[in-house]
Structures are given as C-alpha cells and as structure tokens.
Amino acid sequence: MATPTMDKVEADAAAASHLITVTFRIRRFNPEVSADATWEDFQLEIDPKERVLDGLHKIKWDLDGSLTFRRSCAHGICGSDAMRINGKNRLACKTLIKDINPAKPITVEPIKGLTVLKDLVVDMDPFFQAYRDVMPFLVTTGNEPTRERLQSAEDRERFDDTTKCILCAACTSSCPVFWNDGQYFGPAAIVNAHRFIFDSRDEAGEQRLEILNDKDGVWRCRTTFNCTDACPRGIEVTKAIQEVKRALITRRF
C-alpha cells in the first residue's frame, strides 16, 4: 500500500482548514409518508467556495439517499435545479455557500406555484404547456429555402436578450400572479413568445400576440420585477413583457 506523500498530506490538511460547518434546512415532502411537508436540518463540513448543489450532493450521497431533487449539467445551462434558497429563486449549481450567509441555516425549498411531487421536485407540466402554447418555434410560409435565412445584426439584436432563456421556471415561479392563478401564462412563456414575435424571419407574430391577448395572457402582469430579479441568465424579463404589451397596443394603429 502506497504511503501518502508529504505534499498530499499537507494539501489535504490545507483543504480541511478551509472547511466550515453549515446547516442545510430542507423542506421535505413525501406523499407516500405524509400529506404534510416538514423541515429537516443537516449539518455539513463544506468549503464555503462550494455551491449549494454540492451541499445537496453531500447530503444525498453521505447522509440521506432519499433526498430528491433535480439536476443535470450542474453548470447553469440546463436550468433543472431551480429552487428557493433563503427565500429567493436561484439555481443551486450557481449559488455559492459563501454568498448566502453560511453562519445561519441555509433554507432550501421547492419553487412556488407548481405542485410539489417530492422534496424539491415540482410538477413542471403546466409550465411547459404554457411554453408550448405560445408556439416557440420559427413559422414561415412558402417553399423550403435553398440557403440560410439571413438576418442583419440589428434585427437579431431586437430579440437577442430573450434567446438566453433556459426554461428553469425561476421567473414564472417568483411571480405573485402565477402563485395565485396557475392559468396565467407566466413570464417564461411570454419571454419565449417575445423571442419569435420580434424575429424578422418569422410570420406568426400576430398569432402569438393574439394568444397572449387572452385573459390569462400578458395583461395579467403587474410589473413587480420579481421575474427580472430571479432570472439566473440576467434577462430583462419585465422589459420583454412590456414590449409585448406595447406591440399589442400599437399593432392596431
């Protein structure tokens, strides 16, 4: 058996010296056990430069394998690990322990407005249905083009911000209107409609505007800016919603 080198021992000691004790307070729910959710505390030794997702992994792998949450890429691209951390919607993979006051318990709970299936996992079907309803794809008529549909840099810039959406639901599940009425399309669906409404190559802008003109559409927005604050990609969500409202008003003149 190989003996650890002094460099390895020193490196391990140095790493251990940076660890702090952190309490994760997680909202647990298992419908097979109880109809009520409960809070459960876990104490971890963790480097403050690690992420909340790393802490959840340590809990699941070392302390309680029944803990249930979604994650995939772990690099802020897939959007699957959106959750409420210390009362704010965030991506667990992009939230560092040191940035959220680890001296106090770190509360982790599922995003609001969607049915909780187990622990931190919610039913995303209503969210994705709203996304599908706004037709989030390019619509054109005529024959298939023989070359790429070209677009100027200025035309692309018109909707560039809303192409960044990763469908994490952080914006929609931070919206007070959505909390109280799940029929509302929600910010994410409107953002993805915006992306095509203002695309110069698309021909279904009027159709999407009519969809969002519904009683559960864009007019339900109360401009609280919760969605903009929650977006992990920095999309100006409220601004995009206002632009869709403006398009609905001005299209008749």
Class of secondary structure makeup: alpha+beta
Number of domain modules: 2
- Unreliable spans: none
Mean pLDDT figure: 93
- Principal-axes shape call: elongated
By CATH, the architecture of the largest domain is named Orthogonal Bundle
What is the top-level CATH class of the largest domain? Mainly Alpha
* Tally of individual helices: 9
Which range does the strand content fall in?
Answer: 5-15%
Fourth-tier CATH superfamily name of the largest domain:
Alpha-helical ferredoxin
Nearest-angstrom radius of gyration?
22 Å
Order of helices and strands: HEEHEEEEEHHHHHHH
Helix content: 25-40%
Spatial gap, N to C terminus: 82 Å
Strand order of the largest sheet: 2-1-5-3-4
β-strand number: 7
Q: How is the main sheet built? A: 5 strands, mixed
> What is the fold-level CATH name, i.e. the topology of the largest domain?
Fumarate Reductase Iron-sulfur Protein, Chain B, domain 2
EC number: 1.3.5.1
GO molecular function: 2 iron, 2 sulfur cluster binding; 3 iron, 4 sulfur cluster binding; 4 iron, 4 sulfur cluster binding; electron transfer activity; metal ion binding; succinate dehydrogenase (quinone) activity
Domain 2Fe-2S ferredoxin-type: 20-114
Protein name: Fumarate reductase iron-sulfur subunit
Descriptive overview:
With 253 residues, the chain is α+β, with helices and mostly antiparallel strands. The chain folds into two domains: 17-122, Ubiquitin-like (UB roll), CATH 3.10.20; 125-250, Fumarate Reductase Iron-sulfur Protein, Chain B, domain 2 (Orthogonal Bundle), CATH 1.10.1060. The chain has nine helices and seven strands, in the order H-E-E-H-E-E-E-E-E-H-H-H-H-H-H-H. The protein has a five-stranded mixed sheet with strand order 2-1-5-3-4, with helices on one face. A two-stranded antiparallel sheet has the order 6-7.
